[in-house]
Write a structure and sequence with these properties.
The protein is mostly beta strands and 258 residues long. The chain has one domain. It contains 1 helix and 14 strands; from the N terminus they run αββββββββββββββ. The strands form 4 sheets. Strands 2-6-12-9 form a 4-stranded antiparallel β-sheet, with no helix packed on it. The chain has a 4-stranded antiparallel β-sheet with strand order 3-13-8-10, with no helix packed on it. A hairpin with a 4-residue loop joins strand 4 and strand 5. This is WxL domain-containing protein.
């Protein structure tokens, strides 16, 4: 029995020795005329100042020497961010007339984007945002809007007014394949109660949603840029006043939807 045990152990050592020796033999037989090195790269979050892309041509590269200065850029940093939003200008010369049907309707003018050199260009009203999270998870998010009541300096409100958006389109100038078309509503209504959010984008696809996006309302190419955001004021409960301007704050929010 002892002899058998010793023989088995010797045999095992011989097998192990042969297994250990094989890699060395392979290495020694490698092609002498070539050798391999390694390449490596690591990524960190971008903390620089974002620049809006030209909404009239989102594929146009941003000129760092002549960036867009109006609308202003959100100075906060982070991979999930609303970058810039145009103000909605419904005009200063709207005449007080009898209500048409059950109320009054006013259209927002096309936006005017301005570059650092003073150049101004007509543009659709828009919201630019980004989702550049790069953590091996899906870039799922929502984009919503809330609006406060239109109020003048005498604290008079346009009661139950609504903002109606149409011809809504989402563009990614770098890669349109990142746009989830089924997650964008072509029309949407925002109540001006300050609390009710309206969802414009629901990005729930696993393989989309990365990059910088422009949510635009209308297009200068088909003359819908000045007819795609409308303010509806119901006649019931409202008496229009010319004493001062009515203003509202529209807040756009991008939120994680993973």
């Amino acid at each position: 029995m002892k002899l058998t045990h010793k023989l088995c152990a010797a045999t095992l050592l011989a097998v192990l020795g042969a297994a250990v020796a094989v890699p060395n033999a392979v290495q020694a037989a490698d092609e002498p005329a070539s050798w391999s090195g390694k390449g490596s790269i690591n990524f960190v979050e971008d903390t620089g100042v974002d620049q809006p892309t030209d909404p009239t041509d989102p594929t146009k590269p941003v000129d760092p020497e002549n960036p867009i200065v109006t609308p202003p850029v959100n100075p906060a940093t982070g991979p999930l961010k609303v970058i810039a939003v145009t103000d909605l200008d419904f005009g200063t010369d709207n005449k007080v007339t009898p209500a048409s049907g059950s109320g009054w309707e006013y259209s927002a003018k096309a936006a005017q984007i301005e570059y650092k050199d003073g150049t101004k260009v007509a543009s659709p009203n828009f919201v630019q945002f980004k989702d550049t999270r790069a953590d091996n998870k899906a870039n799922k998010h929502t984009v919503t809007a809330k609006a406060t009541a239109f109020t003048n300096s005498e604290n008079q409100e346009l009661k139950a007014a609504q903002l109606n958006f149409s011809n809504v389109k989402l563009v990614n100038g770098a890669d349109q394949n990142q746009v989830n078309e089924t997650g964008v509503k072509a029309v949407q209504t925002v109540e001006t109660d300050g609390t009710t959010p309206a969802t414009f984008v629901t990005q729930d696809a696993d393989d989309k949603g990365f990059g910088q996006f422009t949510l635009q309302f209308g297009d200068t190419a088909d003359n819908t840029a000045d007819d795609s955001v409308k303010l509806w004021v119901p006649a019931e409960g409202n008496k229009l006043s010319t004493s001062s301007s009515y203003t509202s704050t529209i807040t756009w929010t991008i939120a994680d939807a993973r």
